[in-house]
Amino acid sequence: MAVARPGLAPEAWSALVLRGAFLWLLGVSLGLLSERERRRRREMVQLNRDLTEQRERIKEVVETMQDGVIVLDQEGKVTHWNRALEERYGVKREEVLGRDLLDAFPALREEGFPAFLEQVYAGQAGAVTLERFAHRTLRRGDAILNLKGTAMRDLRGEVQGALITVEDITERVGLEKAVQQTEKMAAIGTLSAGLAHEINNPIGIIASRVECMLLEADEQGLSQTVRDDLKVIGKHADRVARITQGLLSFSRQQAWRLSPVDVNTVVEAALVLVEKQLAREQVTLEQDLTPGLPAVLGSANHLEQVVLNLLTNAREAMPEGGRLQVATRRQGRSVEVEVTDTGKGIPAEHLSKVFDPFFTTKEKGTGLGLAISYGIVRDHRGTLTARSREGVGTTFVVALPVAGER
Ligand code: ADP
Ligand code: MG
């Protein structure tokens, strides 16, 4: 500067130096500031990346969870619907995202779900649980669910939405029911045996006394009303006696002898008893009995009763006529009898109940035919199963182990 401005006074010099120093300091601090700014920005970007990564990871966990996960916003609109839900219930997330959960699944309203949801939004500490919630799904039939709901809050503690996890226990409950069914059958067997013994004698006495009274009423010329009443009593006493007999055979307390039985002979004997009636009711009979089947060990009389029950039910399912197919065959270590009808079928919700004692859909039914048959087949270490389609028909299969092979 001295070279450029040789004539400068010393005061001007010091002022210049001061100004220069000031400018330099300003530059340095500005540089420092922008460096800090840059570092902060880098940190922010990193933080953001971490957050996104974390969010992705959480999303991945939610997506791969076996349980269903639903997230709702403040108004009950769906903001998340995970893969488990898509797969199990066949509902894509595009169909539900942004929609009110209750509108998307109207069945929920009648099933008492809104009360659960209200409780979740009330925001109590911890999760609200709803166990064994019976739900008719949109596309996959009935399901039984365990639900857990938690209120989601923002930093100020305000409820912002709800997180609901859905555990599907339909299958487990089904298994439990099968076990219960076996236990129930055993319990009812014991109970009904006692009951039947108790009722058998008195009802026999009532029936025979009513017979006597009817004769006396005739002899003494009693009024028609009295005789009609006696007849009604007699009819109902007979019905009670029949039910008692049924209970006795269901509980299998009657003694029987095991001997080798030819299943085809059993089927033919039962068919003889229904053939005429079938023809009268426009039911065509198709038989496909495999010759030379191995014998099963059992009681021919009881097995005939089983087949007769199945044939009777099949006939009763086809009041307008139809086709009845009866087949026997060897299947692995068993001999099978299959009875198929083209009747009205059994609704899915009844299929598990038809073997229950007293389950009947018929005005004059006892609901004991299949329960007794089930008991008899079980005592032969066999299985009795049903499959049916409403409006198409029904098939019952009796499978009995071949003698000496098990
Ligand atoms: P019941 O014949 O006295 O009603 P069962 O134990 O024999 O009692 O049968 C129970 C119920 O199962 C019937 O009332 C009926 O609803 C159903 N069922 C049984 N067999 C058939 C069939 N072949 N087709 C349609 N429904 C059937
Ligand atoms: Mg029946």
Output the keywords:
Beta-Lactamase; binds adenosine-5'-diphosphate; single chain; 5-stranded mixed β-sheet; Heat Shock Protein 90; elongated; alpha+beta; 52% helix; 3 domains
Describe the structure.
The chain has three domains: 63-168, PAS domain (Beta-Lactamase, 2-Layer Sandwich), CATH 3.30.450.20; 174-250; 259-401, Histidine kinase-like ATPase, C-terminal domain (Heat Shock Protein 90). It has 406 residues and is α+β, with helices and mostly antiparallel strands. It contains twelve helices and twelve strands. The chain has helices at residues 10-64, 83-89, 93-96, 101-104, 107-110, 113-122, 170-219, 224-251, 263-280, 300-316, 348-351, 369-379; strands spanning 68-73, 78-81, 128-136, 142-153, 159-168, 259-261, 283-289, 296-298, 322-331, 334-341, 383-389, 393-401. The chain has a five-stranded antiparallel β-sheet, with helices on both faces. It has a five-stranded mixed β-sheet with strand order 7-9-10-12-11. It binds adenosine-5'-diphosphate and magnesium ion. Adenosine-5'-diphosphate binds next to helix 10 and helix 12.
Give unreliable regions as ranges: none
Main beta sheet strand tally, sense and closure: 5 strands, antiparallel
- The total beta strand count reads 12
Q: Whole-Å distance between the termini?
A: 117 Å
**CATH architecture descriptor text of the largest domain:** 2-Layer Sandwich
- Please list the strands of the largest sheet in the order they lie side by side: 2-1-5-4-3
The average pLDDT score comes to: 89
Written as H for each helix and E for each strand, in order along the chain, the element string is HEEHHHHHEEEHHEHEEHEEHHEE
**DSSP helix count?**
12
* Distinct compounds present: adenosine-5'-diphosphate, magnesium ion
What is the CATH C-level name of the largest domain? Alpha Beta
Q: How many discrete domains?
A: 3
Structural class: alpha+beta
Radius of gyration of CA atoms, rounded to a whole number: 40 Å
CATH homologous superfamily grouping of the largest domain: Histidine kinase-like ATPase, C-terminal domain
Q: Report the β-strand fraction as a percent range.
A: 15-25%
The global form is elongated
Which percent bin holds the helix content?
A: 40-55%
